[in-house]
Amino acid sequence: MKEKIIAKATDLFLKLGFKSVTMDDIAEEMCISKKTIYKYFCNKELLIAETTEIVHKAIHQSIDSIVAKDYNAIEENFEIRKMFKEMFKTSESSPSYQLKKHYPEIYDKVVTREINECTSIFKQNIDRGIDQGLYRPNILIDTYVGFYYHLIFSIHGNTVTEKELHELELQALEYHTRAMATPAGITELEKQLENYHL
After folding, report:
1. For residue 34, which of 27, 80, 160, 170 is within the disulfide window of CB 3.0 to 4.6 Å?
2. What residues form DSSP beta bridges with 181?
3. Cβ atoms within 10 A of the Cβ of 152, count?
4. CATH number for the domain that contains residue 70
């Protein structure tokens, strides 16, 4: 039952927002009593913390499966961007923005966890891009990784709608890639941008 509650809560939080969904809403959607939910979660914050953990795991499993496909470095970043767009396509408002606004402590934990995990992914991507001749060899990798995740998390925490979030993230990815790219990398970037909009 606990897993079912988490699954339903995750679905509702991502579609309707962390603030607007109540424990009553979850109970009503599941045709169970609110008391049953409180048996597993003493408050809404605990349920939100568990749902964000589930979403985090799902995201990183998807990223791992994309990385395992051995795309070139630029193509890999675009595949990850498509995965995020697909995963959150039913959301109207940005879940990250709502979390930061209404549950800042949970948001801070999520961001810290994401930065730790994403840092290694970003570094591996840059190393691979350098090896493939798509990124310049003299890049200060730690600096570029820092720039990129600060940009991405700033967009996530300050953008209200999911549509605008996707547009800004794509622009950030283009900006990040152009800053690192060799002429061959620019050619690959243009190709990926064209394919992304098809």
Report:
1. 27
2. 135
3. 20
4. 1.10.357.10
What predicted TM-score, i.e. pTM, was given to this entire model? 0.83
The amino acid present at 55, given as its one-letter code, is: V
- Would 116 be classed as within a structural domain? yes
How many angstroms separate the CA atoms of 22 and 34, rounded?
10
- C-alpha dist (Å) from residue 101 to 18, 86, 98, 112: 10, 24, 5, 16
* 14 within some domain: no
**Host H or E run for residue 35:** helix 34-40
C-alpha–C-alpha distance, residues 95 and 103, integer Å: 11
What three-state secondary structure class fits 181? strand
In a domain, 158, yes or no: yes
- The tens digit of pLDDT for each residue in 55-93 reads 888 888 999 999 999 899 999 999 998 888 887 776 667
Question: Which residues on neighbouring strands pair with residue 93, listed in sequence order?
Answer: 161
CA 6 to CA 158: how far, in whole Å? 26
